[in-house]
Amino acid sequence: MAGVGAAGVGGGGADGLGEPAPGNAINAGGVLGPLARAQYGALARLRWQMFTNGLRSNKGALELGARTFSFIVYTVMGLAVGAGAAVATYFLVSGNQWRFLPVLFWVLGFIWQMIPVMLASFQEQFDLGILLRFPVRFGSYVLLYIVFGLVDVSTILGGLFCAGIWFGVAAARPGLLLWISLALALFAAFNILLVRAVFAWIERWLAQRKTREILGAVFMVGLLSLQLMNPAIYEKRHSGRSGHQEQAEQLRAAKARYAPLLKNANAVQKWLPPGLAAQSLQQAVAQQPDAGLGSLGLLGVYVLLVGGILAIRLKAEYRGENLGVAPSRVVAVAGRGKAAVNAGIPGMAALDPGGEQMIHGSGPIAAIMEKDVRSLLRTLPLLYAIGAPLLLVLVFSSIFIKNGAVQTPVFPLALPICMVYAQLGFTQIFYNNLGTEGVGIQLYFLSPTPMRTVLLAKNILHSFLFAVVALVAGVLTALRVGIPDIAVVAATGAWLLFSLPCNLAAGNIFSIKMPYRVNPGRISRQRGSQANALLSLLVQLGFLAIGAAVFTLCWYLDRMWIAVPVFLALAIVAVFVWRQVLNNADALANERRDVLMATLMKAT
Amino acid sequence: METAAIHTYGLTRRFGALTAVENVTLSVAPGQFFGFLGPNGAGKSTTIKMLTGLLEPSAGRVEILGQPFDAGALDLKRQIGVVPEGMALMGRLTATEYLHFVGRMYGLDRKTTDRRTEELLDFMQLSNENKKLVTDFSHGMQKKLALAAAVIHGPKVLFLDEPFEGVDAIAAGMLKTMLTGMINRGATIFLTTHVLEIVERLCSHVAIISQGRLVANGSIEELRAGVASTLPGAAQEQRLTLEEIFLSIVGAGGGQEQAQELSWLA
């Protein structure tokens, strides 16, 4: 049996079953060596097989349809953005407006970094953790991480934006093709690595209780800071009531006041990746190839730096780091009497079936809510889903602020629109409310607690969470864009009373019929469901359309109060439907239990 | 006639063209420690899922404690405890939190749940692991926790799918003591495992399923006598182990010969 002990990776002889010999084992090599290539091939085959096997079920076909549709939508969006970028680039380059070119790169960078933040919950990414048990080199692991990460919305939009800039430069100055190709390649690499590095590190920080608390505190301080800016906003609002001429004067004064600041900002941004990418073109045009190469070189250093930061995180993952967290509360275990054990656990079970029962069956509801709160505090995607709407409201409420001043009178639909953003953020929570249960889903079918009670408990908890988020979002909106009319507040409240049960009812059906497992330790790399995301969005758009029609009509008639009784009447219907869905939850869950368990118990 | 703790009539489960379990009829008397055996893929877990309401039978029916049992039989579910194949644990909770949750899902009040949780964690020697989340537990610890969760409400009928898999010898001894205690107090236990020594030591009755069909059912002595009667002459006199009985009934297959052919294995 010579050679058995020395068998290399891959083992096996020429026919796979013969005497193992080092010479017949696949040579490990580097990240592009024979073993790595064989592994890439196997992984590609695995992905393909998973894809084709997924098509065997109706759900898989639906998923493919949803993915295709999403891909088309994002591509169309990307083409529109890319076309805009091409036109803008053409005019800037042909008009020698080099000082404005960095703006395009900054916008590109912003899109590349912000899209994943907004869509993290909906994107499916392959979890490479499954590879750790195989002899995969670290370099291969990194390469696969990056390559698999390319298939996402930010890369599609960013790539098409890059293509737009490339075509714009090519049309305006063909002599710059080499420069723009190099600059865009480096800038794209920087963005791809940065977005992954940011997510990887945020996940690491959020996985630790202390850093999670620190980040939470930073977030709160950020919100408070924005609120403290309101005296300035109010000041602007009052001055904003003056005429156009006065406004123009104020603008000129502001320009004069902020010019030194802008100059300093411009000097700084030149040393940052978007500025360096744009600057390299300007330097090439100015016949300064050395300086241009220097800019590109510095951009390359940024790429290496970000890649290094990402690699540190991936190295820890590669070594098998577990992002699972210990609970904050230390349960006292000392001093427990062992007498209870000796008192006979073996006997306890058999003849004491009920213990003292909770009155009116309220126990399971409280238990589920308590359990969900505990799980929520340790489940990054859900914490993210709850926090993200506030960020969205913060960002999108700025569209109602023109020239740094709040519009007067306050745009009447600002509050309901901000509430829509807040509600959209809860999509994952409402429409996949069993997604974090994992193998624990079995317990709901084993226990005497009906699924109706389980969903009711979840609905109550989620409604409470949404109420808190909606309240904070409302306060934020009022502080950002001004206090809306009381009729608008009442109408918005009534609309929420209508839309919330609608979403809960639809969400319960989706959660049973189209569930997907949520990886509790990750924000990114979720194996989400495009079909669930797309269809739930369509359903919500339906509810929003009803709301929008009523709001717009009442606004047009200048009778916002009318919306209140209309929404309240609709809310009564919605609550009735929600109750019906709850009453049918057990039948639906029993009918779907095989799929439900198979999906949620699937290893991530 | 005493009402059976578990009774199945023509239990069948089909997955498309595949019939995983076919026409299984069996009866388990109250207080019986019942071993349900079979090779991999024979249909053990599918059967236990149907018995516990996790899977709907394609045909046939199940009675637990004399009452028809299906997923909607909530009162009956209070009387049964289950360690299912996937263990039904919730990874983002601690052991204490999980047992609290399970106890209350079965309708126990907080005080009783607290007391039993503490007792069970002590008994399972998991008290010192309370800083850990369940997801960070070893496989054996998860098994012990799953068993604790299955008994916290004091079930009359206990279904255990591979409860000893991955459990160390000390813990296995404890679990056996606990299960024997339950039997002594009148509970019924339905156990599937591949560890035949445990079945031989604990179970009074055994059923064997192979390729979805029930191929043997009775007390171990009855099975022993049945198999021995098929053996030639002097071999009938020797006392067969359960492993020998099992292999004789389901057939040893060509496993040993095939293993010898894998000459590239060290």
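qc> Chain A touches chain B through 73 residues (CB under 8 Å).
qc> done
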